[in-house]
Design a protein that fits this description.
Keywords: Cytoplasm, Guanine-nucleotide releasing factor. The chain is of the alpha+beta class. The chain has helices at residues 3-7, 40-46, 78-81, 92-128, 134-141, 148-160, 172-178, 186-190, 192-202, 206-216, 226-230, 232-237, 240-249, 257-288, 301-305, 374-377, 408-432, 459-471; strands at 291-292, 309-316, 322-328, 331-340, 343-348, 353-354, 358-362, 387-392, 400-404.
Length: 480
């Protein structure tokens, strides 16, 4: 502790929650160092609040100028809210089951509260004060408040199923009927990446920055920035399988809800898969539209045809240059981020590599010297770590790229992602290359007209062609 901390320390008899734990949602999440597996939800969550760096320096801490405490959520347990004089004795397992159902209910209440807050505390004031235009706010907020009735309906059904003693007997039929309606979030979630980009761009405006900073410092925000509220639906969606599994875990095997909850979990997984697929397509389109090609030869048709972005993130090349690498289903693209009139684009670096022609090599620490500085050329103190190499498998295009991750975990993510993509392409080629049934050869003595001769290659030539095609996907990959 610093001297300042000691001066401001509260009496030991008073329990105080450390300030560092409530500053922002970002502090509750492990730092993301541009990891390879940057799925949509994680990507937008890890983007920093740019306005913070330009905010006025805070005043020195003092007791008289202490910040207003943030508003805190009610964390009461179900068992603490019960009047046990009116409730029949329950087993320990049933109490845990009711707690799990109560957690589902409380989460819906919190979600509805946050959706209302996003509209009333952010959207409406910014529109009224002309801080942002209606078009910009619509693009950023979407139809966020239109989802409130959806969650209010679930709450109403759960309330109706709650008995006079505060217990809920069954929820299986309720959630089975309600969960498919969450597909309504497909458009909202698909637009989040573009919405976050626009919000970050508008934060460069001093009025927007000042308004959002004031909100961040207000008690109602709970020290969360605007994006934390806009991201609430996505973070809530991924919790439903966990919440339902927790209820199921404490539900007896003979209970009517057991089979129904298993069905409900399957339903929500299908819903999330559908939403995730739409998110992936949207993310893929978003980044392909931001690619800038220096040469026509770089415009690989596989890029525009891509429907899925497997992973992307920052890596360094052998000279130490930061590259943003995109792995699409069928092609790997290395780029350099550049700014064009306040708009970030990704300038394609060298030639894109089709995944079917991609050769991956894991390198040991110290195998390659990275960086181009004069001092580094004579330094032997530190070995270069977390490196791997990619190259064209075709010898005629043998240009290779030695790339470096931030740490061992980052490198391993990339290796796993690349190997998975290569394996899928090889499997697709193997399926394509399975030998077809050859036609029955006619008897050599049978008469044949010239017009009956096949115009296609002979079976022997076809087999050679298939072998040649298959060999493209069967290059040896150096594994860990």
């Amino acid at each position: 502790h610093t001297d300042t901390d000691e001066v401001l320390a509260e009496p030991s008899s008073k329990r105080v929650r450390p300030l560092g734990r409530v500053t922002s949602l970002a502090n509750l999440i492990s730092p993301v160092k541009n990891g390879a597996v940057r799925r949509f939800g994680h990507t937008i969550q890890s983007i920093s609040f740019r306005g913070e760096s330009k905010s006025p320096a805070p005043k020195p801490c003092s007791k008289s100028a202490a910040p207003t405490p943030p508003k805190r959520r009610n964390s009461t347990l179900w068992s603490e809210s019960q009047d046990w004089s009116q409730t029949a004795p329950l087993s320990s397992r049933e109490i845990k089951r009711q707690e799990a159902i109560y957690e589902l209910t409380r989460g819906e209440q919190d979600l509805i509260e946050d959706l209302h807050l996003a509209r009333k505390a952010y959207h409406d004031p910014m529109l009224k004060l002309s801080i942002m235009s209606q078009e910009e706010l619509t693009h950023i907020f979407g139809d966020l408040d239109a989802y409130i009735p959806l969650h209010e309906d679930l709450l109403a059904q759960l309330a109706k199923a709650t008995g006079p003693d505060g217990t809920v007997k069954e929820i299986g039929q309720i959630v089975i009927g309600w969960l498919p309606r969450l597909r309504a979030y497909r458009d909202y979630c698909s637009n989040q990446l573009a919405a976050k980009a626009l919000l970050d761009q508008r934060k460069q405006d001093r009025r927007v920055q000042d308004f959002l900073q004031r909100c961040l410092e207000s008690p109602f925000s709970r020290k969360l920035d605007l994006w934390s509220f806009l991201d609430v639906p996505r973070s809530r969606l991924v919790k439903y399988p966990l919440l339902l599994r927790e209820v199921l875990r404490h539900t007896p095997a003979q209970h009517p809800d057991t089979s129904l909850l298993q069905t409900a979990i399957s339903i929500i997984q299908d819903v999330l898969s559908d939403i995730n697929m739409r998110q992936g397509e949207s993310e893929c389109q978003y980044y392909t539209e931001k690619l800038e090609f220096l040469h026509e030869s770089q415009r690989d048709p596989r890029i525009q045809a891509s429907k899925n972005l497997l992973c992307h993130g920052e890596l360094r090349n052998k000279s130490g240059t930061k590259l943003h690498v995109f792995l699409f289903t069928e092609v790997l693209v290395l780029t350099r981020p550049v700014t064009r009139t306040d708009r970030q684009v990704y300038q394609v670096y060298r030639q894109p590599i089709p995944v079917q022609d991609l050769q991956l090599e894991d390198l040991q620490d110290g195998d390659v010297r990275m960086g181009g500085s004069f001092r580094g050329a004579f330094s032997t103190v530190e070995r270069t770590k977390n490196i791997f190499r990619i190259r064209f498998a075709d010898g005629s295009r043998s240009r290779s790229h030695t790339l470096q991750g931030n740490d061992v975990f980052h490198k391993q993510q990339w290796l796993n992602c690349l190997r998975s993509a290569i394996a899928e392409q090889r499997q697709a080629l193997d399926t394509l290359c399975k030998p077809a049934e050859l036609p029955i050869e006619p008897d050599e003595n049978s008469p044949r007209n010239v017009s009956e001769l096949p115009s296609s290659p002979s079976p022997q030539k076809s087999r050679r062609s298939r072998r040649s095609l298959c060999s493209m996907g069967k290059r040896k990959e150096t594994m860990l």
